[in-house]
Write a structure and sequence with these properties.
Elements: E1 3-8, H1 14-27, E2 32-36, H2 44-47, H3 53-62, E3 64-67, H4 81-88, E4 93-99, E5 112-118, E6 128-129, H5 134-147, E7 157-158, H6 164-180, E8 185-190, H7 199-211, E9 218-223, H8 224-233, E10 240-243, H9 245-258, E11 268-270, E12 275-278, H10 296-309, H11 312-328, H12 348-357
Parallel strand pairs: 1-2, 1-3, 3-12, 5-10, 8-9, 8-10
Antiparallel strand pairs: 4-5, 4-11, 6-7, 11-12
Helix pairs in contact: 1-10, 1-12, 6-7, 8-9, 10-11, 11-12
The chain binds nicotinamide-adenine-dinucleotide.
Nicotinamide-adenine-dinucleotide (NAD) binds near residues 71, 286, 293 and 297.
């Protein structure tokens, strides 16, 4: 059987890394009918928007997409095209596994963390009021009257909604991921001591969910500031980390840093029956079309996709091939060489060739 999968090559370095990932997936022998969808800065002239309607329709139809990075050009009406896709499709769980690969220069070894970030609520909800606008003044006066607290009149306001239902479903996702992937512990993270009615609610909801998994998966809580220090000092103590949107955004970059950077950090955005797989990194416009950047983050995002499809063997083989090529350190891109101007660095497509040969 062949899978129908939406492929959004993206813009900037998107074409280079998504071609590499597509070739690697095809080389595993898993049969896929790719439904290729244009999006991003390069198609605004053609469609009048970086996110043509056909893109979302294709993902809704196929239920699964592999996506390259998309630039959000200023003045398109989008805060971020990528956030718009997640919101439109209610892809509430952002999954970012961070695993060390032998051969990547990093201060840390044997990192094996999974960040599960809530994707739809929190300060990312985009509910903002600009400083100086009449409605902002009205809001400030209303809040002052309700809370009996003073807000500087020259303030901008961003709203942080966190719901019981949104918190429960992301924590449940974290526990289910832990069960399915043989993980031992889930750590819920927030700043509940300061924001009692949002972050405190997140912990309360997490505790409720954790009860269902008692005896199967360990559960603990950490405050976000302490967690940042703990991850830098003793990351080996942690396993699956579940966080509200903004903390999750920051912590997943911290974890990507622990394993050696954006070039090797994969991701997925998952909702009810829909999933979009994409690297953490962006479109790095200065490297567009140069066949230069590291394809591994995108290839490992495709590994997550194969795993999600239930193609466990193909996923494992592809991950092992990536690990082998990185460990050898020969056919790797500039960022994986000891020096960035190393003349022995290979291009994006040549690294993909090496990975395919190692399968
Ligand atoms: P970026 O991730 O595109 O690039 C930052 C730097 O990281 C690059 O200059 C490069 O040095 C390095 N880098 C990134 N990917 C790499 C790779 N595969 N191999 C080697 N090095 C790599 O971040 P940015 O410059 O902040 O964003 C550029 C554009 O991308 C913006 O328009 C932003 O909105 C968009 N963006 C998109 C996504 C997404 O599609 N999910 C994510 C982040 C940013």
């Amino acid at each position: 059987m062949a899978y129908n999968i939406t492929l959004i090559p993206g813009d900037g370095i998107g074409a280079d890394v998504s071609t590499a990932a597509r070739r690697c997936v095809e080389a595993t022998g898993v049969k896929i009918n790719w439904d290729i969808q244009e999006a991003g800065a390069d198609v605004i002239g053609k469609y009048g928007t970086p996110l043509p309607a056909g893109v979302l329709a294709s993902i809704r139809k196929n239920k699964i997409a592999l996506k390259g990075p998309l630039t959000t050009p200023i003045g398109t009406g989008f805060r971020s095209v990528n956030v718009a896709i997640r919101k439109e499709l209610d892809l509430y769980a952002c999954l970012r596994p961070c695993k060390s690969f032998k051969g990547v220069r990093s201060k840390y070894e044997n990192i094996d963390l999974v960040v599960v970030r809530e994707n739809t609520e929190d300060l990312y909800a985009g509910i903002e009021f600009e400083e100086g606008k009449p409605e902002t003044g009205n809001l400030i006066r209303e809040i002052e009257s309700l809370s009996k607290k003073k807000i500087n009149p020259d303030s901008g306001i961003s709203i942080k909604p966190i719901s019981i239902s949104g918190s429960k479903r992301i924590v449940k996702f974290g526990f289910e991921y832990a069960i399915k992937h043989g993980r031992k512990k889930v750590t819920a993270i927030s700043k509940a001591n300061i924001m009692k009615y949002t972050d405190g609610l997140f912990f309360a909801a997490a505790r409720e969910v954790a009860k269902e998994y008692e005896g199967k998966i360990e559960y603990e809580e950490r405050l976000i500031d302490n967690m940042c220090m703990q991850l830098v000092q003793k990351p080996e103590l942690y396993d699956v980390l579940v966080l509200p949107n903004l903390y999750g955004d920051i912590l997943s970059d911290l974890c990507a840093g622990l394993i050696g950077g954006l070039g090797i950090a994969p991701g997925a955005n998952i909702g009810e029956g829909l999933a979009v797989f994409e690297a953490i990194h962006g479109s790095a416009p200065k490297y567009a079309g140069l066949n230069k950047v590291n394809p591994v983050a995108m290839i490992l995002s495709a590994v997550l996709m194969l795993d999600y499809l239930g193609e466990k063997q193909a996923a494992k083989r592809l991950e092992n091939a990536v690990a082998k090529v990185i460990a050898e350190g020969k056919s790797v891109t500039y960022d994986l060489k000891p020096h960035r101007d190393d003349p022995t660095a290979v291009g994006t497509s040549q690294m993909a060739d090496a990975i395919i040969s190692a399968l």
